[in-house]
Amino acid sequence: HIGTLTKVGVPTFPRTLKQVFWFSKPNPDGYLGYDEYLIAVTDTAAVYSIKLDMMLTNDWIYRYPSARGKVGGSSYRYNGKDVFLLASEKDGLMMFDGEEFTLFDQSPKVDTMCVHSERVFITKPDDKFTVWFSDDFDPGNWNVSLNEGGFISLQKNEGEILNMFSFLNQLYVIRESGIY
Length: 180
Prior knowledge:
This protein has about 180 residues and is mostly beta strands.
């Protein structure tokens, strides 16, 4: 455990932070409605989490050895539970359930990521012209088939894929020279 509280009750972090994500899920006991967490990736690629509570008495907990390179994340509903997906350019896709991180062994390395219609959509660091998608309801299944995951190859004339996001039941793909 690391960390302290400032005079105003905000948890401090003694390392240099690269990125911080917020994750909330329904409290299993129903008390106060939701459990909320901050997930931090440090400049050394270590992953920490802290559960936020009313008294701000929790410490940062070292959770996972690394999330190297570019990192992204999103909330997801997996097997009936709210989880947080953390994607890394060098380490692939991992899931945080509030207690521990689990690495999806078969997941590809991730450059950009978003969740849309119960699938995870990504681009890979070594191919920024193809959108890959997981099986629906299973972010760990990247098998390419009609019933599971797959990919969409885009023409190179619009440039590399820079980002993706889901909005109003549509998946938007941002490229150097256009939006799909």
